[in-house]
Amino acid sequence: MKIKILSVLFGTVISCGVSFAQAQQSTIIEDFKPSPLNQPQQEYPMVNSQGYARFKIIAPAADSVRVSLGLGGRGGTKLEKASDGSWMGTTEGPMDEGFHYYNVKIDGGKFNDPGAMNYYGSIRWESGIEIPAHDQDFYALKNVPHGHVQQVLFPSPSTNTSRRAFVYTPPGYELGKDKYPVLYLQHGWGEDETAWMNQGHANLIMDNLIAEGKIKPFIIVNTYGMTNEVKFGKIREFKIEPFQTVLIDELIPYVDAHFRTIAKQTHRAMAGLSMGGMETKTITLNKPEVFSYYALLSGGTYAPTDIKDKSKVKLIFLSCGSRERPEGVNNAVTALKEANFNAVSYISEKTGHEFQTWRRSLRELAPLLFK
């Protein structure tokens, strides 16, 4: 996938669930365990130590069952019918570590797997599967002080309704009087404001980094990016102005009025994954007086000529997965550094346009913010 902005916007729904760049395993190890994202007491789907996924669907009257895991045109994983009416199958190859959306196609119809929990992606609630990662400790649920994630409904005159946001406040916020910087963190195309806390574990990443003394605590705000009005393949029709109005004129004033924020440009950041990166780039360039920290996660790049007033920018962070042509990110950061910007690149190894890339990116970004 190209790093250029117009070619990454829809990557959330076409990310490669199975890494066919890896050598095909000659023998599948039969140490399968239920996926961490299964519904309570559900055995399937299962994953093994090599990263293969195995599925079981009960559909005795079906003629065909496949599991779609973003296999890039390979048709998904075909399941075989057993004598008891169930259908079973194992992915053709090992999957990348981390979270993946998927759905089940039964006789051509698209359904969710009743054994798995659902997550909003691809403009619908989809099944989710987690391939345990070698570095999953940084977003693990641990016995450390935890912040709070709360839903807020804020008035939006521009859209003639109330809109929803999720706000993460760090551990101890409720008991203290300190004011905090704020990161406005955007989801990708086809997702919504639930993505970063559910799929991304942003709250747990923050809790763990704070407990380890690696970051200064700050608030995170997630809101719906008005992206789903743009249909797949129609990105040239996207207009930033409606969401920019919601964010700049409605949400930020609401957050500053209802939370203990440091309501200054110097203490405000914006970041986004995929299409959220496009939104971040456009809005930060349109409104340099609002944000001083910029981060694009698999969401394009900045060029030195994009930025009119260098003094207003404290950090530019660019990241992507190693399967996403990372030379675009690295070259962009080199050019920014040569122009005397504080620019940082991060490449997530052995991942593509997927949440493991973005979880790792947030882990790398957070310690650089609000220095």
UniProtKB/TrEMBL annotation:
GO molecular function: hydrolase activity
Gene3D superfamilies the record matches: alpha/beta hydrolase (3.40.50.1820), Immunoglobulins (2.60.40.10)
Keyword Repeat set for record: no
Organism: Arcicella rigui
Keywords: Hydrolase, Signal
Signal peptide as annotated in the record: 1-23
A UniProt-annotated Pfam family: Esterase
Name of the protein described by the UniProt record: Alpha/beta hydrolase-fold protein
Entries under PROSITE patterns matching the protein: PROKAR_LIPOPROTEIN
UniProt key word Signal: yes
